[in-house]
Amino acid sequence: MHHITGQDSQLLETRYPPSPEDAFRAVDQLWRADLHGYEPLLASEPSLAAWSEASLRWLVAPEPAFPATPGRSGVRVGLADVAMIKPTSGMFAELDDRFGGEHARHSVVQYLNCDVAPLLTGQYTEAVGRALFSTVAESTLLAGWMSYDACQHGLAQRYFLQALRLAQDGDDRRLAGSILSATSHQATFLGHFTEAATLARAARMGIAGVATPTLMAQFHAMEARALARTGDTRACELALTEATKALESRNSSDEPEWITYFDEAELAAEAAHCFRDVSSARQAVAHAENAMSGHHVRSDFFATMVLADARLRAGEPEEACRVALDALDLGEQLRSARCVSYLAEFRTHLAAIGKMLTSRDFYEQADEHRLWRATDTVPLSWQPVS
After folding, report:
1. Is 217 exposed, middle or buried (0-12, 13-18, 19+ CB in 10 A)?
2. Can you tell me the distance from the alpha carbon of 87 to that of 67, in angstroms, rounded to the nearest whole number?
3. What pLDDT, on a 0 to 100 scale, did the predictor assign at position 154?
4. 316: which of 64, 152, 279, 311 fits an S-S bond (Cβ 3.0–4.6 Å)?
């Protein structure tokens, strides 16, 4: 393993960068340390204080900053250079969607480190710089999502924070809100429900002047996910109602293209998670059955596992096992620790009701699948809190 010298304390510091130059330096160090397998970083835990600090710093931030002396000796950067980043990241996003975050995560970071880092310290006009920061923020957000999907949570949080700063200086409030929404998603997964609800509200408040219906729907859904885990059924249902109303009023031509994936099927999947977590098994089943898009493999895997869990909670273990096998077939190519955690949670609930004949058959069939076998070694911290 390559040892990173002299930067350990900075690398392991989790904070919102105070300036664009700090963000460039920090994200460059992160990409290199990640590629070199710097173990303290890869194994790091997220910081609750950093979530709060970053959301507040972003909400009250003055005008977007610009580097004082952008790359006097660096490469010349034009809009054509910036325009290459988005489709390249888009290709990695498709791989992530189809094969899970662990499949191409290293390749994304390699691309960012080798091809994108020199652009940040290059020579560019303010207009090119803003476009560059926004585009790199989007790519860094993807690296954060993939790290989160691999359950490398401290690393994912650091990518999210750098992406937030880059989006701020790219003057892209919508993208910055979406990054906060991603941190809310991660906080809920890790069991920090109050923080997660606060982050979703901060995202909503922060884009108030430039909000779109789909973004508002997604942020309300994130708040609902967090509230469901706290057991506040009424507040959760209110947030879901707001999400539904917002989505019904959308006009796709006005939406950023990176949020257009959030449609009725995605909202149904979020609602299914919510109703499962507030123990409304029948409603969870109904929503989960509407959540299969057929276009997003990992999302469909999650929705199918929520359906299996909801069937189990509704007192239908045989049907639950049948649905879980469907999920295992669907997830055969996924490399995702988060997918394994959904299976581990289902396995725990199944074990709690005792092994009957059908589930014995199920265990034999499930054991033929790599993802199921991986649940044997899942650390408890990976399992979403029930």
Report:
1. buried
2. 26
3. 97
4. 311
- Total number of domains constituting the chain: 1
Q: Token pair for residue 36?
A: 């070199």
| Residues 6+ away with beta carbon under 8 Å from 22 | 165
Q: d(Cα 50, Cα 321) in Å, to the nearest integer?
A: 40
| pLDDT tens track for 187-205 | 999 999 999 999 999 999 9
Residues 6+ apart with CB under 8 A from 80: none
| Cα–Cα distances in angstroms (integers) from residue 101 to residues 47, 54, 358, in the given order | 22, 24, 33
- Please count the other Cβ atoms lying within 10 Å of the Cβ belonging to residue 102: 20
With tokens 């939406």, the residue in question is 255
Query: What φ, ψ does residue 383 adopt, rounded to 5°?
Result: -80, 125
Is there a domain that residue 20 lies in?
A: yes
| Alpha-carbon span 31 to 29, nearest angstrom | 6
Enter the tokens of residue 324.
């879980």
Q: Are 53 and 15 in contact (CB under 8 A)?
A: yes
Of the candidates 189, 187, 185, 165, which has an alpha carbon nearest to the alpha carbon of residue 175?
165
Residue 374 to residue 335: CA distance in whole angstroms:
11
Instruction: Kindly state whether residue 34 falls inside one of the protein's structural domains.
Output: yes
Residue 1 pLDDT more than 50? Answer: no
The residues near 257 (Cβ < 8 Å, ≥ 6 apart) are none
pLDDT of the residue at 356: 64
A 10 A CB-CB count for 43 gives 11
How far apart, in Å, are the Cα atoms of 144 and each of 137, 149, 163, 186? 10, 9, 8, 10
Residue 113 domain-assigned (yes or no): yes
Which tokens is 372 given?
A: 């199921």
Q: Which pTM does this prediction carry?
A: 0.94
Closest CA to 277 of 193, 153, 154: 193
Identify the CA nearest to 174 among candidates 82, 58, 62.
58
Do the domain assignments include residue 134?
Answer: yes
Calpha distance 169→157 (Å, rounded) = 19
Reference 184, options 142, 134, 218, 233; nearest CA is 218
User: Environment class of residue 386 by beta-carbon count within 10 Å: exposed (0-12), middle (13-18) or buried (19+)?
Assistant: exposed
